[in-house]
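hey team, just a heads up i'm posting the complex here instead of the shared drive bc the drive is being weird again. everything in one block, sequence lines first with there labels, then the predicted structure for the whole assembly after. its two chains so it's a bit long, scroll down
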Amino acid sequence: IQMTQSPSSLSASVGDRVTITCRASQKIYNYLNWYQHKPGQAPRLLIYTVSVLQTGVPSRFRGSGSGTDFTLTISSLQPEDFATYYCQQSHTAPRTFGQGTRVDI
Amino acid sequence: QVQLKESGPGLVKPSETLSLTCTVSGGSVSSSIDYWTWIRQPPGKTLEWIGNVFDRGSTNYNSSLKSRVSISVDTSKNQFSLRLSSVTAADTATYFCARDWSERYLDYWGQGILVTVSS
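-- predicted structure starts here --
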């Protein structure tokens, strides 16, 4: 299953609302997860099963969608949110990731 | 808190075998619901799922690598390992180990280890 994210990168300011979209090449129901990755660090699970926040993830992160189209929204961007974000499907093997969305200042 | 840490050589020669180990703490590689997973990220590219080991030794592999990859588990050391044979420059990547909870999501990751394939 191919996962297509858009945009591939974006520039934003602290306090901005940011939206990242992810489209699957076939229906994946609710088997969609989002990760945050900063250089030199372990990737971090943000949201699983489309919209469930992982423990410790701030409520400014929100996931939505169904079927093939999904969205990650950051309601008010904070300095620590500048990173690359990946969607991932866990419906079918092999698990596949989107190409990533880099969020820059 | 589950922690994972990758270890192994950072430089491998072409045609040789890449071998990495992931040491798990705070969790057990013997768990029946956890799938212990390897993922890699070539420079400038996205994440690629390599495969996993579960249920004390059963495995799943990405078909694109299946002929070259082997993942195993050592329950006595609480570790799992990756072997990738006949490597080329295209196998240069940061390799991550991670825990996949019940094949649904990757909730714990290691920091990754950069492996360069070069003579």
